[in-house]
């Protein structure tokens, strides 16, 4: 299941996690998802984008958008950019080996990379992360995705 490219990215991620839990190694660095979390005054905003061009957006208010339109040209283009920039980032950093951290507090941003061999992430002040030469391009592509999917779901 983990290597079956016909399956949804979330299903493949689940299969890779199960393999990791069973002690499998050498799973490679296939990037299957990118999650951006930002602490806002009202709570946490979360955008999860997947390799199969689907997405999930959870607004700090609790509103949820499930994007299951992988053939939408604009989202597909921005998602391709996001994944290209994200692959460059994971080539520069290593996987996180410790317990998952608490969500980022107000003013902080975390970008997590859901990779076959584990979780990779970067975290810092939101303004600094958007201005960062490594993280910034990926974050701007993620912001573009969020703007498109929220404009198609105005409620």
Note the main attributes of this structure.
about 160 residues; alpha+beta; six-stranded antiparallel beta sheet; 4 helices; about 35% helix
Rg, Å, rounded? 15 Å
Helix proportion range: 25-40%
Walk across the major sheet and give the strand order: 4-3-2-1-5-6
C-alpha end-to-end distance:
36 Å
Structurally, the number of domains stands at: 1
Mean pLDDT: 92
Estimated share of beta-strand residues: 25-35%
Low-confidence stretches: none
Tally of individual helices: 4
Q: Which shape, going by the Cα principal axes? A: globular
Order of helices and strands: HEEEEHEEHH
Largest sheet descriptor: 6 strands, antiparallel
Assembly of the depicted chains: single chain
What is the number of E strands?
6
Structural class: alpha+beta
How would you explain this protein's 3D organization?
The chain has 155 residues and is of the alpha+beta class. It has one domain (9-151). The chain is built from four helices and six strands, in the order H-E-E-E-E-H-E-E-H-H. A hairpin with a 5-residue loop joins strand 3 and strand 4 (64-67). Helix 2 (73-90) packs antiparallel against helix 4 (136-151). The protein is globular. The mean pLDDT is 92.
What's a quick, concise take on this entry?
34% of the residues lie in helices and 27% in strands.
């Amino acid at each position: 299941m983990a290597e079956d490219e016909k399956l949804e990215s979330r299903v493949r991620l689940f299969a890779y996690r199960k393999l990791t839990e069973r002690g499998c190694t050498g799973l490679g660095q296939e990037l299957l998802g990118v999650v951006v979390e930002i602490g806002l005054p009202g709570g946490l905003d979360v955008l999860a984008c997947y390799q199969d061009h689907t997405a999930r957006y959870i607004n700090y208010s609790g509103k949820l958008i499930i994007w299951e339109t992988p053939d939408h040209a604009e989202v597909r283009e921005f998602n391709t950019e996001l994944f290209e920039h994200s692959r460059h980032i994971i080539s520069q950093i290593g996987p996180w080996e410790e317990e998952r951290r608490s969500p980022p507090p107000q003013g902080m941003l975390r970008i997590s990379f859901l990779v076959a061999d584990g979780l990779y992430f970067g975290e810092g002040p939101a303004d600094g992360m958007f201005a960062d030469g490594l993280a910034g391009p990926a974050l701007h592509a993620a912001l573009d995705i969020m703007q498109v999917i929220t404009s198609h779901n105005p409620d």
